[in-house]
Amino acid sequence: MKETKITVKNLNLFYGEKQALADISIDIYSQRVTAFIGPSGCGKSTFLRVINRMNDLIDDVRITGKIQIDGIDIYDKNLDVVNLRKRIGMVFQKSNLFPKTIYENLIFGPRINGIKDRKVLDEIAEKTLIQAALWEEVKDRLDDPALSLSGGQQQRLCIARALAVEPQIILMDEPASALDPISTAKIEELIDELKKNYTIVIVTHNMQQAARVSDYTAFFYLGRLIEYDKTSRIFTNPSNRQTEDYVTGRFG
Amino acid sequence: MDKEINIGDTISKGDVPNDITMNSSPFSKKIKQSTRIKESLIKYFFAINGTAALIFIILIFIFLFKEGFRAFEHIQLVDFIYHNRLAEDGTSSKVFEWFPTSDEARYSLIPLILGTLLTAIPATILSTILGVGAGIYLAEIANPKAKEILKPIVELFAGIPTVVLGFLMLVVGASFFNDLLNPTNRLNAFIAALGLSFVVIPIIASLTEDALHSIPNDLRMASYGIGATKWQTISKVILPAATSGISASILLGFGRAIGETMIVLMAAGNAANITSNIFQSVRTMTATIAAEMGEVSQGSDHYFALFFIGIVLFTITFFLNLIAEVIINKMRKKNTF
Ligand SMILES: Nc1ncnc2c1ncn2[C@@H]1O[C@H](COP(=O)(O)OP(=O)(O)OP(=O)(O)O)[C@@H](O)[C@H]1O
Ligand SMILES: [Mg+2]
Asked: What ipTM was predicted for this assembly?
């Protein structure tokens, strides 16, 4: 049975006067991977940032519509944004580890949540590294600078760092676009593993990747949601002409 | 465009839309002769300027060291530390005094160095607290409107002539604190340090702001994305990443405080006391040179001794600036991935 995790109704988003998202309505399901695809500038990242309210950090952003997670309006005036972000992990296109050690990166989240006990922190570090399939590679060098890892390892550490605060949703914005095929494959395996416990939304420009990792795919174009369906359907038998052109690479 | 243009083709004005002229086309290989001459003239103009500046610096350097080291014709290095005073009964004692005009001339730099430190260190501490705070506020907290107003104000402070600051401290500041704190001397190291802060705070504030701006925005996003608050982001991510830049700003501010002349000359009281009491008059190295150079007879021991003070000052500030520069360069390299 699929459960709805995130419900969006009639979402509009403006950067100043410019509208970046128009009338978007979508249900995103729990324990599924949802891929956002679409040409550059169509608003995929913007929409991702709506979900964890990172757009709040940008001046002059106006949002209308309704966005609920587990039935709770996340744009409610009384909602604690910091708490919301703790429940939603985010992984960016470029690895953005802190210039600290591997260990310190991992425990950054737990520590700001007030966990001080070294033993508990150690356990979290180990657990999340195992989850992110990175434990074997870094267990002997936890105190090395995080930036000394390879690009693919850094990106998996970013995922581990996001997992350390035990989020329910993980947002990934082109997490593998800067990686080699092997590292990409590792990330995709990881996503497959994580979806058992998390709701995952991934933005990607790689059609094969979307087809491989996702259960649902949403195609965006010029700030609108053009088509949203099971991934298998989007890639074999889309109902919209633009979607078909895009996924088959015929898009101008 | 319906007409194909190949790279390197000469494009006649008629083919080119709007304001793209031949010279500004990045692909045009042919450059007008006059442009080439103009370019090379400009290049030489700046090359000459650059070299001239360098030559002047070297000349100043040579002059300073040549004059300064002539002090050793009659004065020994230890004389710059203490003077051996012989008493009538044959015993001797060490005297740490700057008194070059006396018959028994004393050249100890100790009171002057202490005076410099007693004004520069408190000024730097105060300026670090306020300057770093202001830098953090400008870079991380202030909204664009507040920033638009505050930044020019901070910069304005840096532009106030130091003689005005010195005068203000001498007249207004000294009286105010005389009533408030009842200091040992009306003009003292504390008053001078306050005056110096007006100069040092803008330096530390703007360099701190630069250091914080050079931290990639990705790190802020990472921190907020994990659920950190603004304050946690600043204190646990941004400041640690900017430590080297902020330290450099403090060093540069300290260098400025040591080298500043007018404020300390006017506000520090100018008595070459050996003291750790911040409320007593002191005299700095810079003030000594400024006050005595005009009256000293050229070529005397006193004259050369003043140049030697110049060497000491130059060396201190040179190394402070050098260290700061190295730190800043390292920081730049680290932050460009
Ligand atoms: N901070 C911002 N301020 C103003 N406009 C913005 C901002 N961020 C994005 N935009 C605009 O919003 C639109 C959508 O941008 P967004 O980054 O969401 O696209 P995207 O689909 O993620 O593109 P890409 O695939 O290239 O990452 C673009 O037109 C972009 O210029
Ligand atoms: Mg994007």
From this structure: 0.91
